[in-house]
Amino acid sequence: MPPTDSMPLDRLQTRRAQGVPTVTILAGPIGVGIQAWRGWAATRGRTVRPASDADPTALVAGWAEDAFAAGLVDDATAWLAAVAGADADRMTRHDLDRLWQGLPIDPAAPAARAAYRVLADAATGARPDPEALVRELADPAAVVRGLTGLLPEPRWPALLLVEPPGADPVAWLTAATAALEPLVAAEPRLPVAVAVRAEGVERFLAARAGTRGAALVREGLVEVRGVSGDELTQRLRAAGVDPPPAAAAALTAGGLADDVADAFVAAAATVRRPTAGDVASDFRSVHEQFLFEQLESLPQTAGLFRPNAELPFRHGPRTGEADLLAERPRVAVEVDGAVFHLHPEQYRRDRRKDWLYQQHGYVVLRFLAEDVVENLPAVLATIVDAVTQRLPRRGACP
User: Fold this and answer.
1) Are both 282 and 357 inside the same structural domain?
2) Would the pLDDT of 347 be above 70?
3) What is the pLDDT of residue 271?
4) Pairing relation of β-strands 318-326 and 305-315?
5) Are 173 and 200 in contact (CB under 8 A)?
6) Average pLDDT, rounded, for the chain
7) In this structure, are 110 and 205 located in the same domain?
8) Transmembrane stretches, by residue range (predicted)?
9) Which of 59, 144, 306, 317 has its CA 20 to 30 A from that of 90?
10) Do 14 and 158 lie in a common domain?
11) DSSP H helical segments within 43-161, as ranges?
12) C-alpha separations of 171 from 23, 52, 54, 204, 205 in Å
């Protein structure tokens, strides 16, 4: 399927709604699989936590972090009001302990234990700690049952496990299915997917024929495909652009979604023929749009960056804006050249802006628009390196 076709993913979600434990297996170019799952989840208002570590505890810890970010304190408060008719907003830790002794449901149930941990932290003013909850519940499946028991189903984060580069596909997919099977059994409605190379799926099914893991993979299999190198070359030439070999090869090797291919062609054409009309919707230039879509396809950066994001400082007479901003690691990306950097004063303004970035704790990375097209691998490697250094937990997803 192309990444914009949601019908196969909707069909599998219907299975989940019917209580059938399901893992979507996105077989094909890894980048296209990531984009397909993120795009599907975004249309349903769900966040996605990409990971490559198939260790169940590490996988659930990342997912729990996203669940906490979805407003879990309010949901735990609402859960307690529904179960015990009590208002947690007015309770001290002592009040909470006394209430839990007489809770009308089993206080050892996963949802009750999750609610207690969340509300106890809130009562003492402690920072919500998803890792503490994961340690306390110990069993990853219990963590899923507990948090899905508090959060309304439409706000459950979606899980995405991504095959890492260089992994043995049979061994990795065996570990992945073993980690995910108890999670989807604990809560069949939980949206869970795996992005894996097609040849890896074939080898896994041959090596693990007749196992429950093989059945899980076969039932959730969705083939994804990207734009080939020849197809991209044809599009570039049709736009009057000589294909930049290194960038084109790197793009298609990792998997290239159709809309990203279109953005690349537009960016390549604009580098050679810049005009003031070459501005994409929600972006200042087609180069920013193309780079953003590339970052959305990488497990290390997917979901981190926002385009045209406001900054916590003024730049000139207005609030500053970043071309692309990752707030958690405090990394800003600026794309220079093409339309908006046509005379020296604009460069001087940006040097002043770089100093403001540094004063507010941001790392700012600047790239020429032409390098986004012609030297894309180096641009992406620099951004990934900056994010990994400043957000170590994302390093679990190579």
Assistant:
1) yes
2) no
3) 59
4) antiparallel
5) yes
6) 84
7) no
8) none
9) 144
10) yes
11) 56-69, 72-84, 93-101, 110-124, 130-137, 140-148
12) 17, 13, 11, 8, 12
